[in-house]
Amino acid sequence: MAGAGLRAAARRWMPRRDHGGPRAASSSPSCPGCGPPGPGAHCPGAPRSAPAPAPAGGAAEPSAHLWARYQDMRRLVHDLLPPEVCSLLNPAAIYANNEISLRDVEVYGFDYDYTLAQYSDTLHPEIFNAARDILVEHYKYPEGIRKYDYNPSFAIRGLHYDIQKSLLMKIDAFHYVQLGTAYRGLQPVPDEEVIELYGGTQHIPLYQMSGFYGKGPSIKQFMDIFSLPEMALLSCVVDHFLGHGLEFDQAHLYKDVTDAIRDVHVKGLMYQWIERDMEKYILRGDETFAVLSRLVAHGKQLFLITNSPFSFVDKGMRHMVGPDWRQLFDVVIVQADKPSFFTDRRKPFRKLDEKGSLHWDRITRLEKGKIYRQGNLFDFLRLTEWRGPRVLYFGDHLYSDLADLMLRHGWRTGAIIPELEREIRIINTEQYMHSLTWQQALTGLLERMQTYQDAESRQVLAAWVKERQELRCVTKALFNAQFGSIFRTFHNPTYFSRRLVRFSDLYMASLSCLLNYRVDFTFYPRRTPLQHEAPLWMDQLCTGCMKTPFLGDMAHIR
């Protein structure tokens, strides 16, 4: 019945095969299997022309049988997707990895940067330019590096960087490099070279090369949003050295770039830019105020733990919330030095006055309206008695903000992922929906029809494999031409996604998404089927039946 309903809906909407909208190029130097268009090239997602069926009364050739199945599937997929299928996902929704009821949450905690304060992307070129100039002026790097400008479309969050190989790459949840997403400088590295660099495999032994927080020693993972200009600068500097044939030590170059980016923060340059023009750099301040006020009005307790200095936080919160912002929070902790704040018991809390001067008296309680610096989570738990699942903490960094709180202390956690909004808008497009649906159906066909191994059938299957790769490249390029989506490496989740699911109960594009839900709302994660729990492959869904299609073709499988 479900299949009949979908087909009935589809009959009211019979679009042309070519939807006429803009589409990504079918060839990309960074994507394997997507060569330049040539004779007979077609738009990925559109059906290939098939040989004419065998004459009536004669036995059909296996290849003709395969193409007939292909055309049947293509028609079913085409008819399956009425217009209302697109725009199903809400960019302002909250997505749950774990069941959680806000009714049980009594205490809400927040990071500051990119959580309470969302920043405009115009901040990234400023960080890039300042760090680039520091490299030239203080580290005596070549003057030619100044010719590089920040490219906001180059990198995505969650990438890994192999320091000794100067390789920026995207790794999936199983520690495999996604082929076509490895770059040295600004140039893609051929797949064959990547495989050779890692001993004949795509697999990266991260347990040997990187620590729990993704900080090396051999491989670094870029997990926060501030790392976008760092990746861009690192790639530009490597590009300059390689392009001019200059010898360099990869470890020294990586450290110099990292230190230059750090200097932008440590020297307070970024804080100065934001403080000078908060209207330009801080987004959704009124929504942050609405979230905090609503929680306090419903009797919730609030606290702030941030690595930023008090003077910077105070100016930002006054801009977003008003001069009395500290009255909303029961505890305010600045310069906390996360993630060591969550694991190191040695650093005591110190009180700050309004001018930022440190007090020397011992802290025996955390008072509302006061400001505290450093400290550690163990003293925080002892002094507040805020423990376990009645505490929900929000942050943007999966390691520094969320990992230890969930794994060691049983707090509930919410991840702020600003990129989610843009990715959902792409997922809601017709181009993405049709490309992905046909890709899934074609994958099912490949799995079922691989039993045909005569010469002509192998040619058909090879054509399908090539078309599937083209579809994957097109879908990847919708998100980012070099690296694709931050959540997917083709069909697998990314390493970033794996950490997101592991360390967060909830995730959302911004804190303002909370305004769309009642304060006693219960989030129920969807039961995502495991492979052995999923009887409905896309080709079965298209036929609207529970039986395995083409069962006769697979009768020999036990």
Automatic annotation (TrEMBL):
Cofactor: Mg(2+)
InterPro entries referenced in this protein's UniProt entry, alphabetically: HAD-like_sf, HAD-SF_hydro_IG_5-nucl, HAD_sf, Pur_nucleotidase
Species per Swiss-Prot/TrEMBL record: Capra hircus
Keywords carried by this UniProt record: Hydrolase, Magnesium, Metal-binding
Skewed-composition ranges (Low complexity): 22-33
Active site: D111 (nucleophile), D113 (proton donor)
Name under which the protein is recorded: 5'-nucleotidase domain containing 2
Keyword Signal attached: no
Binding site for Mg(2+): D111, D396
